[in-house]
Amino acid sequence: MKNIQGLLLLFFAVLYSTSGLSVPLDKLILPDGFKIAVYAEDVTNARQMAMGKNGIIYVGSRSEGKVHAVIDTNQDGKADKVVVVADNLTMPTGIAYKDGDLYVAAVSEVLMYENIDEEYANSPKGEVVISGLPTETHHGWKYIDFGPDGWLYVPVGAPCNICQTVGDGKFDDPRFASILKFNLATKEMKWVAKGVRNTVGFDWHPDSDTLWFSDNGRDWMGDDIPPCEINRVTADEQHFGYPYIHGGDIIDPEFGTGKDPDDYTKPELKLGAHVAPLGVQFYQGTQFPAAYKKSLFVAEHGSWNRTEKSGYRVMRANFDGTEIGSYETFIEGFLNPDDTVWGRPVAFLTLPDGSLLISDDFANVIYKVTYQK
């Protein structure tokens, strides 16, 4: 009887430890001293995250149409409750939190949910604070955030793989392929950057307040070109080349005739082709080793049409002052040796204790990375 009881206890222990983990964490490789666990499950298509004043994590979704609130009710370091805050939205991937209110980007508009920390469970109604953005859903997923200047930064992706969006194209709207910012008090809009094909992640350097952003390179030029990019904005309305120039020096075969690469801002870092960098974040926590301070984490979401898949990992760009010194793997293992995929990292959020959350819109979970000497 004791043997049977022991086997049952072992069975349920294994079941408990793995049933909640629908992801094979043992396949992930991290640097020495780092550990990864599932922070929240069943967060369908989890994308951008933002933290409220009470520690609630709000999460956008890629195609589910929902915004979730993820709550660690017993403060044990793992979420135990997931609540749908809003539903039936159009691709509400981008979210931001400011002064107790939650802002959600839904392709052609941004909605504000007032006093969200008290109202998240009451099916709150959003108020439209930005309207009239392009309605095209191709590259319509957005990443939004409030900058050091207090303006809300909102990108508008190109409505195609490659096309002319100003003057003579099907999509004649200068806001396509750009990063905009909005003063919500005055309703003023300004251009931050132009010639940006599709950014779904950006952050400001903690020392200089300069904006750094990821950009996804165009498709159908081959497996190995053009590179995806990490870019830096150093002046208003800089043009980063799309659709004419890719990766700083590759002339587009359809739209680049007569264009000089030197007329456009070059990337700070060229990544692999088709790795699809999404979320980026400068690490400003205190839990990780000192060498990680101000590093830029990059979520390479992964290729979709490359002969052999690329990306599917979390990278770290190290800085020498304000310049990128090296680019190295931080987490890998989402891509199996047989080229099948079980996870796709998307975005980051640093918790007050310095641990790092990473959303995964393929495995429908949020991971938590911790460090212990």
Low-confidence parts, pLDDT < 50 over ≥5 residues?
Answer: 1-21
Radius of gyration: 21 Å
Percent of sequence in beta strands: 35-45%
Question: What's the helical proportion of residues?
Answer: under 10%
Name of the CATH architecture: 6 Propeller
Question: What does this 3D model show about the protein?
Answer:
This protein has helices spanning 2-19, 116-119, and strands at residues 34-40, 46-51, 57-61, 67-71, 81-86, 94-98, 101-106, 109-113, 127-130, 145-146, 152-156, 178-183, 188-194, 202-204, 211-215, 229-233, 238-239, 245-246, 250-251, 269-270, 277-282, 296-300, 313-320, 323-331, 345-350, 356-360, 365-371. By secondary structure, the chain is mainly β. Residues 1-21 have low confidence and may be disordered. The strands form 7 sheets. A 5-stranded mixed beta sheet has the order 10-11-12-13-17, with no helix packed on it. 6% of the residues lie in helices and 36% in strands. The chain contains 2 helices and 27 strands. It has one domain (29-371): Neuraminidase (6 Propeller), CATH 2.120.10.
